[in-house]
């Protein structure tokens, strides 16, 4: 039964990844349709992420009050509302309004499932979980590319919403399975969980949060701007090919997490973070290579995604071990909030920056966040290790 529940959880993370790459893939055409500057994609992304921050901050309370399955069902439904809303938007401002339920659907499900898996399963399971997020995020650019080839960008959103609806039905059908597993294993008792204000006082938490912010800033910038990077730095590419480049980073993420799922239990979360940073650096250096051809840069973005792959799940999985189960729900909720804060503001900041300097500055922008990520996480974990040794 436990393995069947884990399979459903993996499917849930496919649904979580499906909406995330649509905006970046469809934006070159959406920008033309709405007749707005390219940087306006950042305002949509910011709205989605801001609502996700709110739901992530509310997640510790939701986890205390509701079972994970109900948080999941409501959250997937909200993303379906958002996807259908985007597909039927006629004016740019409508995208900003629909982004509210679109974003609310992501934060609570992300935090609750990460908390559940971090407390019940191994680091390997956590990596496979986020690998399936990559599956969903990699599929949707191809859905958008197909829509651009055969219909319009609107259908890219509506077709994805239909896939989400199918996943929601499977989750609803699986409710008895959740109940059987709850009866056998039980969910964590979170009645004595620490609040956010208490958690922020724990040594190493704030540094970990800032590091997570840096990681998510680079990741979200890739999510949103990779197709536009190729549109702005390479010539002679078709609309369909440019849209498909949105899958590069997600394909890399999926590959990185798939490989990590097989080796993370042996190497440990901290080693996986260091390996991921090293691989990501190689990818950034490849994108920096001056070339009129797109293949080297395309391979570079895949490698960037591969390096990013183990970082997110490793940091999340370490929360109960580093800070204890009493603080884990709040730590994971805060990590999600910081991640989405980075997702909210940093792609927008890059949009404004690239309008002034040019989109070719993107790999340098990513390099800054990579350095912040590794430096801060190493300092945080060193402090935590010292404290655990003293105890």
What can you see in these coordinates?
- The protein is mainly alpha-helical and 391 residues long.
- It has one domain (2-390): Growth Hormone, Chain: A.
- Helix content is 85%, strand content 0%.
- It has helices spanning 2-17, 22-34, 40-65, 68-87, 92-120, 123-150, 153-173, 175-184, 196-200, 205-233, 239-244, 246-267, 269-288, 295-308, 311-323, 325-357, 362-390.
- Helix 2 packs across helix 10 (205-233), helix 6 packs antiparallel against helix 12 (246-267) and helix 10 packs parallel to helix 16 (325-357).
- The longest helix is centred in the C-terminal third of the chain and has 33 residues, at 325-357.
- The protein is globular, with a radius of gyration of 20 Å.
- The model has no long low-confidence stretch (mean pLDDT 84).
